[in-house]
Amino acid sequence: MDRPKYWLYSLLKKERLKVYVSCIYILLCIALIVARAKGSNSEFDLKRTIYFYLAALWLLIGPIAINVFYKKYEEIGCLLESSNISGISLVVKNNYKINYEWGKIVSLFWEALLGGFLVFFPQTLKSFSIYGYTDPWYWMFLIGALFLLNLTACGLMGVVSGFVLLINIEKKTLIVLLWEKSRETVEKLCKFYCTTALCFSSGILFIPIIFDFVFANGLLMGSIVLFAVFIYLFLIVISYIMPVYILVKNIKKYKANKIAEIEKKYQMAINNEDHNAAIDYYYQMNYLEKKEEMPVNYKNIVQIVTVAIIPVIHFLKNYLSFFKEIIGMLFS
After folding, report:
1. pLDDT, tens digit, 9 for 90 and up, residues 169-180
2. Helices (H) and strands (E) in the chain — how many of each?
3. N or C: less crowded end of the chain, CB within 10 Å?
4. Are 172 and 87 in contact (CB under 8 A)?
5. 230 to each of 64, 86, 125, 218, 319, how far by Cα in Å?
6. pTM for the complete prediction?
7. Are 74 and 4 in contact (CB under 8 A)?
8. How far apart are CA 30 and CA 159, in angstroms?
């Protein structure tokens, strides 16, 4: 069987040293930047220090979360391939290619977009006591930021790949075949999307420092970054709710059509006084009606939505005046 390719594939093996040496470098940068900013800027308070270290915490758990996702991604691919349903193996293999090839493009775009933002607007880092191209700390910060962007792009591409996988399975009308053959596989697919959303949501550790950055850099610059943050929070929720909706919708539609089809045969058997066939069709309808489509775990939905809402509440609580200015600008 094929396996997905990604640069963190061997994170817990040979790649571990390279990744975590890079993470330690960024942690050291953050610690030194905080120390320097505290010494040169009286407004650099305890709250901002905490925000920095929350972002640094992601460096410890982020690579692990990405690795957990990709292991689950590989497991679900193997499970789908082993179902022996015609066409599904090709869908899985193509999805691995999409993950690998699109991953490069997404990574380059992500780094160019946000890295370019730091290159063309170095003044936005003044609130962190980093003063542009002539400041050596600027280059340390930029190198660390590019690594982080590469890492987060890897996670983002995982979410996209998982969603594309389900879309392609739906296009080939294979969801119903999976449900008919193995309800357990569909349930595991649903759990995979829950894992995807939870791993993806680890990025909220960056939200406090991003909000602080937004507030420090004025209305126009801040509103662009803020828009990106809210898109990310929306994606957290969608990355679980949309796949579950697609699975349930397809199975419900299939059940309704199948029951309607059997009911017609049942009525024909009754009209023809074929009692044995009528009894057989009756039991088939009864079996399908009782067969549960798929248990939707509302606890997971609440958990994921809560994770996405907390940063919004934090923003509204601490930066309400800024939010009012953006609303005013949009509707003026």
Report:
1. 888 878 888 877
2. 12, 0
3. C
4. yes
5. 24, 40, 21, 18, 15
6. 0.78
7. yes
8. 28
